[in-house]
Structures are given as C-alpha cells and as structure tokens.
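Question: I have long wanted to understand how a fold can be written as tokens. Here is the record:
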Amino acid sequence: MPPSLTSAIATPRPRRLVVAGTEGCATCAICEVRANGICSALKDPELERLAQVAVKVVIPPGQIFIEEGARADEFFNVTSGTVKLFKSLPDGRRQITGFVSVGHFLGLAVSKTYAFGAEAIDQVRLCRFSRTRLDPVIDEIPRLERRLLSEAANELVAAQEQMLLLGRKTARERVASFLQELLEKEYGDSPAPGSWISFPMTRADIADYLGLTVETVSRTLSGLRREGLITVRNGHEISIITPSRLHAIARGEG
C-alpha cells in the first residue's frame, strides 16, 4: 500500500456534526479576521448584506463537516482553527490533499457534489452559507463574485503545486515545502530569521499530505535540525533559522 494513503480503520468514521449559532453574524463589521479571505473584498454595506445570510458554527476536533460526494448545498468561510482536506477510496483509505485555516473559503464546486471531504483538526469556527441564500447575494455584489473566482483560481494553483510536490520533489524538498507554506501563511513573503511557526496536525497527517512515511518525516526534520536550519519546541512548534535557505531547498535549489 502506498505510504500516501491512510489505511482503513475498523472504527466508524465521525458523523457529520455542526454546532450552530443564530442566523446572521451581527459582528461582521468588527470581526478580527475581516481582513482575510472573501470578506476583505467587501465594503461595509456589502459585508452587512453578506452577514444576513451567514450562520456562525463551531466544529469540534475530529468532526467531518464536508462529506465527499454529498450535495454541495453549503459554503464555509473559516474564521479560526485548522481544517484538513482529503479524498477517499471506497475501502476507506484517505489521502490528505491540504490544510487550510483562517480566511479560506470552502465548498466551491464545479458539479453539484463536493469533490473532497473536510475535517476539523482542532476546534474550528466557520461562517456557513447555504447556496440558495448566497446565490442572490453574489448576483447583487459583483466584487464578491470576482473574489470567489479568485479563490477558485487559487485552488487550481494549489492543486498544481501539490502535483509537483508528490510527483517530483525529494523527501527533503517536500518537508521544506510544507514548512515554507506554513511560514508564508504566518509571515508573508519576508519572514525574519528565527520566526516561529506552529501546527496542530500530527506527524501522521503531515506524512500523509506529503506522500511520505511518519519515519521519513521525523528523520528529515532531524536532518534539518542538525544542519542548523530549524529548531523544534514542544513537537508542534518550529523556528526557521534561515528562511532563505529553507526556501531554496523547497524550490529544489538546495
């Protein structure tokens, strides 16, 4: 069995569960993550209109809130926490295809069904939109439609990067690419030397995403530490000592 596919587990998969709040998000205008994702493209009146069709939800760790193959009737905007995306085989094996966090918009589908599943890694907070209620708002706000098209384009770029990572990069380059991705999400294009990044996912999740074994991920991280490129703290925190060097390795130049 390829290491990039998680083995089927005898225990049943978590049932889809969403803990919802009230209709509408009255605090959208002062939301601390307003500058991220689709909301950053909207003016105050437009944001107020979007808030009218939103429902705040909380997903506990380990819960699946998007089922691959289910009807794509809802969209989700992540406002806190980390989500893992995955594809499944009929026998229950899963391939993790990505990790997303604050500002990411989930549920855009070419067909009428979801092409992937989504599971909360830690506690995740979302704004949920039903397709029937969001579609009229998209028609009313052209800039929202443009931003959603941009999100879809970003998804395509991410898919192409994942194909390159799994198809051509070495284990060292894959791990460096993963760390580089986290670094850019946290600090942008110019992280300072010694910048810390944290990640809630397990080593097994990282290995699955990178198409490696857990042992290879651990061995590669140890190698980067011996080279003086990273330091590790508490298992889920890593300091990137030389971001430029890490970037070079991720690009296959190291």
The CA atoms of residues 67 and 74 lie 11 Å apart. The longest helix spans residues 142-168. The first strand starts at residue 19 and ends at 23.
